[in-house]
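Hypothesis: this fold can be encoded by more than one sequence.
Test: take the C-alpha cells below, design a sequence, compare later.
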C-alpha cells in the first residue's frame, strides 16, 4: 500500500454517493432504471427523480431540457458501477437488465478483484453491474492492486447463481455506487488532479491509457481512461454526467480538502458541509458529509 503522508489523502472511509445524470427523456430513463436495474423511486425532488434500493438513493435523473447527447470522444462518463453484495444479487439484476433489452448488453469480465457485467442505458450512459471478491483474495504488488480482464461467461454465471429466490428478493437486496469511471483527455493530468491534488491513492494503471484510484485500500472508487477521448478538452454542457458525489465522515474532512484545493489553485465553492468543484475536463464533483 502507499506510503503517502495520510494528511494528503482523502479519508480511508470515503464512500461514493448518488450519481447525477442529465437526461433527455425522463420517462424512458426512469423506466429503464426501474425495470431493467431493479431500482425504486426514493424521492421526486430537485427537478428530477432519485432511484435506489432500500430507500438509499443511488442515481439522480435530472432533466436536461434542450441539451444534446455528448460525442463519443468527449470527456464525461464512461460508466457508473452498481455494486452488489453477492453473486445471487448480481445475477438477479444482470438477468432483469438482459430481459429488458438484450441489445443494451455491452460485455462481461472477470477482473480478479471482481466479476462485472456491462450495459448501456437508453441514452448511451455506461453501466457496470458487479460484485467484489473478498478482500483477502485481492493481490497487491506494493501499492498496486492486481486486476485483469478475463473471460466471464454471462450464461454460465446465470446458470450457477440465478434462482427463483434471488429473483423474488431482488428489490429487497442492497446495492450501492461502487465506483465511477470517467473519460478524460489525458491520464497524466488526471493523476495530477485526482491523486496529487484531490488525495486519492493510485491503485493501478494501464499502459498510460487508464488510471484507477481509491481511498482506504479499495481497488478503485474512481477511474479515468482515454480509450475514446484522448486529447479531449473541457466538456460542453450535455446530457450524461451531471455530478459525482463523494461522501466523507465529517466537516473537518471537507475543510482539509477545501484548503488543499485552494493551495492548488482549484476554484471551489465551500459551504462548510460540502464542497463543489470541477476536474480539468469540467466534470463536476461534490464532496459532502454523509
Amino acid at each position: 500500500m502507499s506510503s503517502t503522508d495520510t494528511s494528503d489523502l482523502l479519508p480511508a472511509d470515503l464512500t461514493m454517493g448518488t450519481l447525477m445524470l442529465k437526461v433527455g427523456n425522463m420517462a424512458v430513463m426512469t423506466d429503464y432504471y426501474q425495470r431493467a436495474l431493479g431500482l425504486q423511486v426514493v424521492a421526486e425532488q430537485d427537478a428530477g427523480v432519485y432511484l435506489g434500493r432500500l430507500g438509499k438513493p443511488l442515481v439522480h435523473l435530472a432533466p436536461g431540457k434542450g441539451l444534446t447527447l455528448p460525442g463519443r470522444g468527449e470527456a464525461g462518463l464512461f460508466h457508473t458501477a452498481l455494486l452488489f453484495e453477492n453473486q445471487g444479487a448480481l445475477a438477479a439484476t444482470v438477468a432483469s437488465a438482459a430481459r429488458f433489452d438484450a441489445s443494451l448488453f455491452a460485455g462481461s469480465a472477470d477482473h480478479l478483484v471482481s466479476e462485472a457485467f456491462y450495459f448501456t442505458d437508453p441514452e448511451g450512459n455506461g453501466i457496470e453491474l458487479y460484485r467484489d471478491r473478498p478482500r483477502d483474495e485481492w493481490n497487491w504488488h506494493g501499492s498496486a492492486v492486481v486486476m485483469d480482464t478475463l473471460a466471464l461467461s454471462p450464461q454460465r454465471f446465470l446458470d450457477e447463481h440465478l434462482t427463483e429466490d434471488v429473483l423474488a428478493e431482488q428489490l429487497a437486496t442492497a446495492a450501492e455506487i461502487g465506483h465511477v469511471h470517467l473519460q478524460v483527455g489525458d491520464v497524466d493530468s488526471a493523476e495530477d488532479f485526482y491523486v496529487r491534488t484531490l488525495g486519492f491513492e493510485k491503485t493501478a494503471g494501464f499502459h498510460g491509457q487508464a488510471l484507477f484510484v481509491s481511498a482506504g485500500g479499495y481497488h478503485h472508487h474512481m477511474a479515468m481512461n482515454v480509450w475514446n477521448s484522448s486529447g479531449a478538452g473541457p466538456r460542453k454542457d450535455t446530457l450524461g454526467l451531471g455530478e459525482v458525489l463523494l461522501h466523507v465522515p465529517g466537516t473537518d474532512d471537507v475543510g482539509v480538502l477545501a484548503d488543499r484545493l485552494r493551495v492548488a489553485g482549484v476554484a471551489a465553492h465551500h459551504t462548510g458541509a460540502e464542497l463543489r468543484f470541477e476536474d480539468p475536463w469540467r466534470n463536476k464533483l461534490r464532496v459532502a458529509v454523509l
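The first strand starts at residue 15 and ends at 23. The chain is about 20% helix and 40% strand.
Hypothesis status: open.
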